Amino acid sequence: MQSEEAAASQYLVAAFYKFIPFPEFAELREPLRAVCDAGGVRGTILLAPEGVNGTIAGPRAGVEAVLARLRSLGPFADLEHKESYSQTIPFARMKVRLKREIMGLGDPGAGSIRQVGVYVPAEEWNDLIADPSVLLIDTRNDYEVAVGTFEGAVDPNTRTFRDFPEFVRANLDPERHTKIAMYCTGGIRCEKASAYMIDQGFPEVYHLQGGILKYLETVPAEESRWRGECFVFDERVAVDHALQPGDLIRCFGCGGAITADDKLSEKYEEGICCPHCHDGLTEQKRRRATERQRQIELAQKRAAK
Asked: Are the beta carbons of 182 and 117 closer than 8 angstroms?
């Protein structure tokens, strides 16, 4: 946990979501965008018939004004959020988007939110995953898992969340895997994944309430079963156990984090691609990335003179 003085000297980053029927979602777009602009807030907020999902950053007063606007609406009166901090605003602009889903599984009808798994508070997570009868599953994508994960967790090796149902069909059986615990960055993916698992007949499904971010915020480092850093979808790339920006950099080719091992690969090209995207990089993208990196290097040389 940060001191109040340290937090006050930085920008507040707030992550939040809530699944709830919200048919009037489109009407909120412009009023919400106006509150964001007035408060100097940047980031992304998704609005859909199934609820809201967002990560925003800015001065505390501006971020709190956005959250207050959302909570002024009946469906989001009890909206929870996770906090972290950054020396700079880790987003280039503010986007408020209308979507069909705030989190899609890519399978028609999959992940219905009629019933979700059991929420497990961060304070109780260690006890749950210490149970040998529990199968622990990381519902995030492969490039996120590579940055950090919980001890003993299964990596589905998915490139996108839409691949998760296929992982379940190919690897899990409700009769054999009777007690499953899942987690993700902020809680939204594992909540929707838990609904999917229940629909598929899995009898006991648990998920980490508030996700990894809430766990890192709540559980002392000396008691933590988290290893590595936590990938985040903004310019910080990843945060450490203190929720401070880590040491990783982002790949311009795919947006994933570049680890020390990635830099040793023959498929790593600074500013162009990493082992995760090298083989799928089109010639057009390679040309653009090469030119961008050339301009960056020229600018660095001019600044050094």
From this structure: yes
